[in-house]
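#lab-general

N.A. 3:47 PM
ok so I finally got the sequence cleaned up, no stray characters, all 231 residues accounted for. can someone with queue access submit it? mine expired

B.Y. 3:52 PM
send it over

N.A. 3:53 PM
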Amino acid sequence: MLFYICLSLGVISLILFLAQRKPEVSLKVLLFKTATSGFFILTAFAAAYENPDCSKTMSHLFFAGAVCGMLGDIWLDAKYLFPSEESGLLKAGFISFLIGHVFYITAMLTTYGISTLYIIFAIFGFVAGAISCVVTEKVMKADFGKSKLISIIYTSVLAGAMGISAATALKTDFSWFSLFMSTGMGLFLASDIVLARIYFCKGGNTRLNVVVNHALYYVAQFIIASSLFVF
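B.Y. 4:20 PM
back already:
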């Protein structure tokens, strides 16, 4: 029951946040965003609490990943409130999300054990992520500027997490947990593609792009948090 309550409140908070979110960011909007992020942390907590099969190691790593996500949310929107610190806050946001993905990767590897399958899928993901980041920049005619290196590293880690999620699906005969994780990571990547357009493409910071980006991102986070419930 607690899991469904937290998830429902999170969805309500997301709807209220999206109604407020515009290309311009105010302190009020940032507070709405932080509250919504707090709900996917609570959802993960409730999911682990109500699932006796979820190990403490798995739940702790997922909590850490979710907290990193919330911090990343704060840094990325704070750059609009403090334009003079934009470069540093943007980098802090990317690093926070990157560390979060490392926590999710670690959770899956410690639970299911490192195997050749994981290594192959992880390497493929890392390489594919780096290549896709470079290709995306050219296709979208984006200008990553000083953020190019951290963007490539971040995308590689995210793609690696997707690869490990896919390997987990194969290893567990497509368990609900692995399907939730694979879907969540896929939506995470989709949201980041839209985010790249917002941040690095001329004229990309539109209300439509902003809403789509956040909708994809938060659905991804809530699905990842919910994966502990079906573990």
